[in-house]
């Protein structure tokens, strides 16, 4: 009788294990697409393409700096922002601009990483290879002359904002609520779209003055970088930014 009990128990275990195996496999097959879809949904923020090669801005910005800046620094902001979305899924479907507009009520991770993501995406677009940079539009040139006196005076004001920014940050040309141009600077990865910005407005032009943006070529010579950078500016895109800001 004891032997029969053991055999019966073994039979039950054998059947149970056999029954579980195909169910487990079926679930794995059914869940595979869902897992891939879930993974895609868990990373709503993507690293944008540059639109040009890493060496396209040389010698103004060298290829290694561009590669590190885009594939490492910008990617780090995107990765961190996606991690923040896992903690707070409600941000996954919110445009980055909306996150920035309400950043005072959000965690520091959102402020830093949404700011870094937006700033760099903007930065790549306002630079272009030689032959694709264009000229400032007549409307933008007129507005610059009205606000600063001349293009040269504007560049001086912009470079002063960049060189005087203590530590890391950005220099910006913005269109304010009064539809006038202004040069401002923000710390870290802040920008004028944020509700915490000292001066708010729509960015038209911006330059990254973190050391990683220029150190391999210019070392600690930020002023030299700011001066050389004008030769990489995509004035066609900047003029488009100005036109859109004036329409808004």
SS field, number of helical segments = 9
- The helix content is 55-70%
* CATH superfamily heading: Iron/manganese superoxide dismutase, C-terminal domain
- Order of secondary-structure elements: HHHHHHEEEHHH
| Widest sheet: strand ordering | 2-1-3
Q: Return the average pLDDT rounded to an integer.
A: 87
- Biggest sheet overview: 3 strands, antiparallel
- Structural class designation: mainly alpha
Under the CATH scheme, the architecture is 3-Layer(bab) Sandwich
Strand content: 5-15%
Molecular shape: globular
Give the count of structural domains.
Answer: 1
- Computed Rg: 26 Å
Count the beta strands. Answer: 3
Distance between the termini: 88 Å
**At the third CATH level, what is the topology name?**
minor pseudopilin epsh fold
Poorly predicted segments? 1-40
Give an overview of the whole structure.
Its EC number is 1.15.1.1. The protein has a three-stranded antiparallel sheet with strand order 2-1-3, with helices on both faces. It has helices at residues 2-41, 63-87, 96-101, 108-125, 138-148, 151-164, 215-218, 222-229, 235-247, and strands at residues 169-175, 181-187, 202-208. Helix 5 (138-148) packs across helix 6 (151-164). It has one domain (60-248): Iron/manganese superoxide dismutase, C-terminal domain (minor pseudopilin epsh fold, 3-Layer(bab) Sandwich), CATH 3.55.40.20. With 248 residues, the chain is mostly helical.
Please render the helix and strand layout as text.
Elements: H1 2-41, H2 63-87, H3 96-101, H4 108-125, H5 138-148, H6 151-164, E1 169-175, E2 181-187, E3 202-208, H7 215-218, H8 222-229, H9 235-247
Antiparallel strand pairs: 1-2, 1-3
